[in-house]
Protein backbone atom coordinates (compact mmCIF):
# COMPACT_ATOMS: atom_id res chain seq x y z
CA UNK A 1 0.00 0.00 0.00
CA UNK A 2 1.42 3.36 -0.99
CA UNK A 3 1.55 6.18 1.51
CA UNK A 4 -0.27 9.29 0.35
CA UNK A 5 0.91 12.58 1.86
CA UNK A 6 -2.66 13.88 1.96
CA UNK A 7 -4.08 10.84 3.76
CA UNK A 8 -4.18 11.66 7.47
CA UNK A 9 -6.73 9.04 8.48
CA UNK A 10 -4.25 6.18 8.84
CA UNK A 11 -2.28 7.58 11.76
CA UNK A 12 -0.02 4.57 12.13
CA UNK A 13 1.68 5.53 8.87
CA UNK A 14 2.49 8.99 10.23
CA UNK A 15 3.36 8.31 13.87
CA UNK A 16 7.05 9.12 13.40
CA UNK A 17 6.55 12.16 11.17
CA UNK A 18 7.52 15.45 12.80
CA UNK A 19 4.72 17.99 13.03
CA UNK A 20 5.21 21.75 13.12
CA UNK A 21 4.77 23.50 16.43
CA UNK A 22 6.33 23.57 19.82
CA UNK A 23 6.75 20.16 21.47
CA UNK A 24 5.06 19.51 24.77
CA UNK A 25 7.67 19.97 27.48
CA UNK A 26 5.64 19.30 30.62
CA UNK A 27 3.20 16.41 31.01
CA UNK A 28 1.07 18.30 33.56
CA UNK A 29 -1.87 20.53 32.60
CA UNK A 30 -1.21 24.29 32.90
CA UNK A 31 -3.34 24.74 36.04
CA UNK A 32 -1.40 22.03 37.86
CA UNK A 33 1.91 23.45 36.62
CA UNK A 34 1.03 26.81 38.18
CA UNK A 35 0.18 25.18 41.52
CA UNK A 36 3.44 23.20 41.55
CA UNK A 37 5.46 26.28 40.61
CA UNK A 38 3.82 28.37 43.34
CA UNK A 39 4.41 25.64 45.94
CA UNK A 40 8.08 25.43 44.94
CA UNK A 41 8.42 29.23 45.10
CA UNK A 42 6.98 29.28 48.61
CA UNK A 43 9.42 26.55 49.67
CA UNK A 44 12.35 28.53 48.25
CA UNK A 45 11.18 31.68 50.04
CA UNK A 46 10.81 29.79 53.32
CA UNK A 47 14.30 28.32 52.96
CA UNK A 48 15.67 31.85 52.46
CA UNK A 49 13.88 33.01 55.61
CA UNK A 50 11.39 35.22 53.78
CA UNK A 51 7.88 35.90 55.03
CA UNK A 52 4.93 36.91 52.89
CA UNK A 53 3.20 40.24 53.54
CA UNK A 54 0.21 41.48 51.56
CA UNK A 55 -1.47 44.86 51.57
CA UNK A 56 -3.62 46.95 49.27
CA UNK A 57 -2.60 50.35 47.91
CA UNK A 58 -4.19 52.88 45.58
CA UNK A 59 -3.49 52.60 41.87
CA UNK A 60 -1.56 55.91 42.00
CA UNK A 61 0.77 54.61 44.72
CA UNK A 62 1.14 51.30 42.88
CA UNK A 63 2.17 53.11 39.69
CA UNK A 64 4.56 55.37 41.62
CA UNK A 65 6.21 52.32 43.19
CA UNK A 66 6.53 50.68 39.77
CA UNK A 67 8.07 53.82 38.26
CA UNK A 68 10.50 54.25 41.15
CA UNK A 69 11.53 50.58 41.02
CA UNK A 70 12.09 50.81 37.25
CA UNK A 71 14.17 53.97 37.71
CA UNK A 72 16.37 52.20 40.27
CA UNK A 73 16.44 49.00 38.19
CA UNK A 74 15.19 46.85 41.08
CA UNK A 75 12.01 44.88 41.72
CA UNK A 76 9.01 46.52 43.34
CA UNK A 77 9.33 44.09 46.24
CA UNK A 78 12.97 45.08 46.82
CA UNK A 79 12.01 48.76 46.68
CA UNK A 80 9.25 48.35 49.27
CA UNK A 81 11.61 46.38 51.52
CA UNK A 82 14.23 49.15 51.26
CA UNK A 83 11.66 51.85 52.07
CA UNK A 84 10.42 49.92 55.10
CA UNK A 85 13.96 49.27 56.36
CA UNK A 86 14.87 52.96 56.01
CA UNK A 87 11.71 54.02 57.83
CA UNK A 88 12.28 51.54 60.66
CA UNK A 89 15.89 52.73 61.03
CA UNK A 90 14.66 56.33 61.44
CA UNK A 91 12.07 55.39 64.07
CA UNK A 92 14.43 53.38 66.28
Structural account:
- It comes from Pseudoalteromonas ruthenica.
- This protein is an all-alpha fold and 92 residues long.
- It has a domain at 58-84.
- It has helices at residues 30-47, 59-72, 76-91.
- Helix 2 (59-72) crosses helix 3.
- The N and C termini lie far apart (86 Å).
**Principal-axis shape:** elongated
Largest sheet: none
Helix segment tally: 3
Helix content: 40-55%
Which regions are unreliable across 5 or more consecutive residues at pLDDT < 50? none
Beginning-to-end CA distance, first to last residue: 86 Å
Overall mean pLDDT score? 85
Strand content: under 5%
What is the succession of H and E elements?
HHH
Radius of gyration: 25 Å
What structural class do the secondary elements suggest? mainly alpha
Task: Find the count of extended strands (DSSP E, 2+ residues).
Answer: 0
Task: Based on the model shown, name its key terms.
single chain; 92 residues; mainly alpha; 3 helices; elongated
Tell me the layout of helices and strands.
Blueprint: H1 30-47, H2 59-72, H3 76-91
Helix pairs in contact: 2-3
Could you provide a short overview of the structure?
With 92 residues, the chain is mainly α. The protein has a domain at 58-84. The protein is built from three helices and no strands.
